[in-house]
Amino acid sequence: MKHNFRKIEAKWQQKWEDAKIFRAVDGSPKPKFYGLVEFPYPSGAGMHVGHIKAYSSLEVISRKRRMEGYNVLFPIGFDAFGLPTENYAIKTGTHPRIITDENIAKFTNQLKKVGFSFDWDRVIDTTDEDYYKWTQWIFLKMFDAGLVFRSKALVNYCPSCKVVLSNEDSQGGKCDICHSDVVQKSKDVWYLRITEYADKLLEGLDHVDYPANIKQQQVNWIGKSTGAFVDFTLDGLDEKLEIYTTRPDTLFGVTFMVIAPEHPLIDKYADRIANMDAVKAYRVECAKKTEFERTQLVKDKTGVRLEGIEAVNPVNGKKIPVFIADYVMMGYGTGAIMAVPAHDQRDYDFAKAFGADIIEVIKGGDISKEAYAGDGEMVNSGFLNGYTNKKDSIERMLEELTKMGVGHAGVQFKMKDWAFNRQRYWGEPIPIIHCPHCGVVPVPYEELPLRLPPVENFEPGEEGESPLAKIESFVNCTCPKCGGKARRETDTMPQWAGSSWYFLRYIDPHNDEALADPEKLKYWMPVDWYNGGMEHVTRHMIYSRFWHHFLYDIGVVNTPEPYAKRSAQGLILGPDGDKMSKSKGNVVDPLDIVEAYGADTLRTYVLFMGDYGAATPWSDNSVKGCKRFLERVAGFTDLLSEDPETQKLETAFHRAIKKVSSDIEDMKFNTAIACLMSLTNDIYNLGKISKEQLQIFIELLCPFAPHLCEEIWEFTGGEGFLSQHAWPQYDESKTVEAQTEIGVQVNGKVRGKVVIPTGAEKEEVFAIAKADSRIASFLEGKTLVKEVYVPNRLVNFVVK
To answer: Which of 289, 371, 480, 770 is packed most tightly, with the most Cβ within 10 A?
Structure first.
């Protein structure tokens, strides 16, 4: 058979679609399998081969599960709100709805041409009103539960995108979208209290099957620390500065305090601060810096001492200076820190720059040169002197702080509450109304969805106002509580909103009465296996786990965790070894490969190119190698034979079934394919294959190259679709060769080889070896001193 991939692939894609063989059945008596891939953002550039690799793992797993008798839910959708589409709309004057629909059509065409076995009846689009109605519904449920609040804060603002960004969306001081420098701006911000769920998010990691590195990234992101809250009084004032520290055992070494330049106590006691002009000037300079710039460890230390304000160290009563410095942020902790310069390098550098005292309280280093951050004996520490165990020192200090009434044990998290608004058009409207009499009022549930109004000008205001603020018919409304005149919230939700619950909507995508039917949720949840990029294992996964935990707490979903298992793929690099990007011109379009070599070749290559979790460069030569492999498979139809000699392949086939089955589950797709390539060589070396063997071969290859395998299945008279046929089984006893060739030595020198039954007893092996004429010639006339047998490897006769 010729591998006419253009004809074969179009034929089977149409047959699959007509028969809807990949449709999931709600409530089937079969065991269920829910395989999930991260749904794509439908950009104008279309998909790249990285998308194909990302989806191919669960594509193979899902196809194998169907053949194993599972009822499989393998859905796809589109995460389509967000800045890229809106920026393109501004640039071209085209409405985001039109752009989004065109891009979704483009992505859908690409996915279908690659032959993915998605359930196309369950496609979702986060920008669809029937979808974001429920995104707004979840937001209102969180509002009712006290998990939504509004606060004025210094925020990360992108002047280019004219939008407020969360810390997570502006890492490194750069906007995630346009990579422009982010500046600090004071704005009213909507927040979700994700910190309320920090402990649950950490505890939940004990009950899921995630790789260790993914769990650790989430642990680090949440950043739970245990320590103490301690009150430092301000000398001569009825005022306290609360700090949080993970090292309360070092309190005797505190020689100064630092507070954030924005700390409200500065303005409260401005009349006591002699150098207020210098303080104000420093504040102006700090306002120009991003949070990233302010918190960098390696930088020149800047600050201003507050002249006229001193604090008192609570454990020894010593007066200590108070500074303001840009590296302390109001949004982190209490906005104030204690400084132990002898044992913290940043404090040490600051103390050196500003002439503060440096007092050693832990032996072990040379504080004349640098801070000592290790453990050791406590010194200069009053009641802690002589302690050598950090744990015991901390416990003793906590006892004393509690007794004195100046401190207590506490916990903090690195993760901050989630900044949940954007000043743009293309996002879910936040369903909140501002009433001059009633305050903040939620939109009634029965009025959802709160729809995006039609807009011609998508440009945000110069001060970062949403385009919605310009639409009076949208803004002006009636308060649901008092019936008076009110104004709608004009900010929209961040793109992360729609992706925080999409896996639930796949279960019941057309439900008008609920986000999903409870019975269907009970059947399908949790997601059995979720694959995606490493770049999403913190933000997206933590956000979606947070939403799911909340929905579990209010009884909407049936499992505390959404994802039972998570895996991740490595990047496909450009042929030049660099990350693919349009600017470098090294992006590979999957449809170019499909057109030139076929979808089956593309599918096989992206999984054969290397370790699935590792970054691997694209190689055109290797693509061609996969095409040649499939052509050889197509050629098996010319080797069909009823010759009993094909039984010589029995062991190789049973081994292949075992290895391919195991490797797919372990995501060792490259070695599974390599095994089938090796079996192909065995078949061609023999020059013949039975119909039964050929059908087993294509059953194993079907998840990787389904179009060709369906064609061969039909050619050999297989009934129905191969994609619905049973997965092959192996016999463990037949994975071992019936006969084994071993070497025979005489006095340690190899003198020949013999074939023995695999697993034969050593007496039988010795007899077979002695019966060999060549071996017998070396034993003739000699006295046999010793016989040695290494099972299934060699025999050694010692003679003299």
So the answer is: 371
Helix, strand, or coil here: 692? helix
Q: What pLDDT was estimated at residue 82?
A: 87
Phi, psi at 64, each rounded to 5° = -65, -40
Exposure b/e, 230-246, CB count within 10 A at least 16 = b: bbbbbeeeeebbebbbe
Using alpha carbons, select from 418, 411, 412, 413 the residue that is nearest to residue 539: 418
Question: What secondary structure does DSSP assign to 301-344, as a single string?
Answer: ---EEEEEEEEE-TTT--EEEEEE-TTS-TTSTTSEEEE-GGG-
What mean pLDDT is predicted for residues 329-335? Answer: 80
Q: What is the pLDDT of residue 704?
A: 98
Q: What is the pLDDT of residues 167-177, one digit of tens each?
A: 656 777 788 77
DSSP state letter for 365: S
Q: What are phi and psi of 712, to 5 degrees?
A: -70, -40
Beta strands in 480-546 (DSSP E): 485-488, 529-532
SS3 595: helix
Structure tokens at 308: 């006229």
Tally of helices (H runs) and strands (E runs) in the chain: 25, 27
Residues 503, 744: Cα–Cα separation, whole Å: 62
pTM of the complete model: 0.87
Distances (CA, A) of 399 to 167, 244, 369, 389, 392: 36, 16, 33, 16, 11
Residues counted in the chain: 800
Phi, psi of 411 (to 5 degrees): -130, 140
**Rounded Cα–Cα distance for residues 321 and 186 (Å):** 29
Specify which residues 757 forms β-bridges with.
Answer: 739
CB-based contact 118:75 (threshold 8 Å)? yes
> Residue 614 has what DSSP assignment?
S
Cα 185 from Cα 161, distance rounded (Å): 14
pLDDT(275) > 90: yes
Distance (Å, rounded) from C-alpha 261 to C-alpha 282?
8
